[in-house]
Amino acid sequence: MLSQQCLQQRRKFAVAFLAFIFILAAVDTAEAGKKEKPEKKVKKSDCGEWQWSVCVPTSGDCGLGTREGTRTGAECKQTMKTQRCKIPCNWKKQFGAECKYQFQAWGECDLNTALKTRTGSLKRALHNADCQKTVTISKPCGKLTKPKPQESKKKKKEGKKQEKMLD
């Protein structure tokens, strides 16, 4: 009786072991059947870098627009393309619509020219635009008036009280 139980256990173990070996073989052949993907070849192109023109607004002097790009190369499929772009409307356009500057405070009024000036340093250039590193702008000083001498507050209050008493 004991030997029959032993034989049954051995058979169960042998079946489990054979099943395990069969599964391992199936997984190994499935992996071997997969073809290894060749690494993507890096194309060495003789195309040059894209050179972009300035952004030209569709209407007005700011907002949405387009720019054209060109590149050179004997085997380039594409040598020209158009790209959408945007010119912010709050930028100082006199220095180029693609150049943004950080300005200092306005200087004192020059009495000889009646102008005040301030300097701006380049903060950001869009699309590798050719921008000046520093710019200077001027504007008229405006009216130069002397401040009026003010009456003291006590005198004003007293005057109002007297007016009320008269009414």
UniProtKB/TrEMBL annotation:
What residue stretches are annotated with the Pleiotrophin/Midkine C-terminal domain?
A: 96-160
Compartments, record wording: Secreted
Any signal peptide, and if so, which residues?
Answer: 1-32
Q: What are the alphabetically sorted keywords of the record? A: Disulfide bond, Growth factor, Heparin-binding, Mitogen, Secreted, Signal
Q: Which residues form the Pleiotrophin/Midkine N-terminal domain?
A: 34-95
Q: Does the keyword Signal apply?
A: yes
Q: Where is this region: Disordered?
A: 139-167
Say which family it is in.
Belongs to the pleiotrophin family.
| Role noted for this protein | Secreted growth factor that mediates its signal through cell-surface proteoglycan and non-proteoglycan receptors. Regulates many processes like cell proliferation, cell survival, cell growth, cell differentiation and cell migration.
- What is the name of this protein? Pleiotrophin
Organism, scientific name: Ceratotherium simum simum
Task: Quote the gene name from the UniProt entry.
Answer: LOC101392886
